[in-house]
Design goal:
With 229 residues, this protein is α+β, with helices and mostly antiparallel strands. It has a domain at 80-228. The protein is 22% helix and 29% strand. It contains 5 helices and 12 strands. It has helices at residues 15-31, 63-75, 141-145, 148-151, 217-228; strands spanning 86-93, 96-101, 105-110, 116-117, 125-131, 134-139, 164-168, 173-177, 179-186, 192-193, 203-208, 211-215. The chain has a 6-stranded mixed β-sheet. A 6-stranded mixed β-sheet has the order 3-7-8-6-5-4. A hairpin with a 2-residue loop joins β1 (86-93) and β2 (96-101). The longest helix is centred in the N-terminal third of the chain and has 17 residues, at 15-31. The protein is globular, with a radius of gyration of 22 Å.
């Protein structure tokens, strides 16, 4: 896969911040490890009792098996948008590389000149911007994604981390980001899926190369709504 362009020195965060963000991404990668596999060679094998043959006249699709198959597909850690080949947009937030499925992105806005800052907005909202006859609520993505110790070190002025906007949620939300990366086509098996969600429900999984945290937009929107409620 194509690697992102190297960040220029005048754009890069301090080395200590880079190392800390790298450690955070490593923690996300470790959090998304696949479930351990059972060693079939050493696993105990139970001998099933013989079953009576099923008459051919009543054989057919097994509704129980079909139901279990659908349940397994829903619980295998993959969101609905990742059942087949998909494409992601990589972007950077305060030094951390993230990725969103392209089919969940409504638009990309370069520059934040159209954003109207509003006083006394609940964190992490930055303001609003007109969007297709309505208003998109602009979110300081870094304050949603980064851990509290990193958030505490963010500059109070978000201008440096809101150079670009990614519109999601049918135009209701605009994610502020520092820079945009490339588009990557992915197969589901190339992603380390997180599985059952606990902390950070917005984390769908991770990419090892290039290292990125893959976000689940519906879960991210729910997290944002919970914070601004």
């Amino acid at each position: 896969m194509k690697k992102p362009a190297r960040i220029q020195e005048d754009e890069a965060p301090l080395l200590g911040q880079q190392q800390a963000l790298g450690a955070y991404l490593d923690a996300l990668l470790a959090e998304a490890v696949p479930a351990p596999q059972v060693d079939a060679a050493n696993a105990p094998v139970a001998t099933p009792a013989p079953l009576a043959p099923v008459p051919e006249s009543v054989q057919g699709p097994n509704p129980v098996s079909a139901c279990l198959s659908q349940k397994d597909a829903a619980n295998n850690g993959r969101p609905a948008w990742a059942n087949g080949r998909f494409e992601v947009l990589r972007f950077q937030v305060a030094g951390l590389w993230l990725a969103l499925p392209v089919d969940q992105v409504d638009a990309i806005i370069t520059g934040t000149g159209g954003v109207t800052p509003l006083p006394d907005l609940p964190v992490p909202r930055l303001g609003i911007m007109p969007w297709r006859g309505g208003e998109a609520r602009v979110i300081d993505t870094a304050r949603v994604i980064l851990p509290p110790d990193h958030v505490a070190r963010l500059p109070e002025n978000p201008a440096g981390r809101s150079e670009q906007l990614i519109i999601i949620g049918g135009g209701r939300w605009a994610l502020a980001c520092t820079r945009l990366g490339e588009l990557l086509p992915l197969e589901p098996e190339w992603v380390t899926w997180r599985g059952p969600r606990g902390r950070r429900p917005w984390l769908a999984g991770t990419l090892d190369e290039p290292a990125s945290a893959l976000l689940d937009p519906p879960a991210l929107i729910r997290s944002i709504e919970a914070e601004v409620a």
